[in-house]
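Appendix B. Raw example, untouched.
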Amino acid sequence: MKTHTLNNLTRVLLIVCGIALIVSIFVPLWSIYLEAPQYPEGLAMYLWASKITGEYEIINGLNHYIGMKTIHPEDFWEFTVLPYALGFFAALCLLAAFLNKKMWLYITAVLFMIFGVAFMVDFWLWEYDYGHNLDPNAAIVVPGMSYQPPLIGFKQLLNFGAYSYPNIGGGIMFGVALILAILAFIEFRKTKNPKRN
């Protein structure tokens, strides 16, 4: 009995993951939303794999008063790399399904987990620099105050409430990571217990 090949459902789910990661290149990955009494309708900024959309120019104008850097898409080296990284992992998922070997599933799962952690750490570091590296000559200086947006969730920043959460693409990435982890665990258990195949 073969124990090194994949279950048919695993192969189908790998194909689904590959297609989903391709989709994630073309939809927003993350959302940052600000609300305040003077902006009851809120201000939204969307991070994609290769660009920023939304009302980030208005946010730039507001942040200028408290000494925060202005946001410019060309300043993000990630926009050059991320579409190719997502395309690479999409291809890796499809390749693992095609090769039908558990080792390729394990390699795909581990590499994608490392990529996911690196993605979140890089995003947190950008937010940290954005919220802490302030112009000391800004019009409004609040001693000891920093303006780092939350990685996920809500944070009050002066009179602004800041929300940060995955958009469609980010949800896809979290979903793919979860599916790959579950598939790798199930297939590994079957290798240890061949009678389960």
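End of appendix B.
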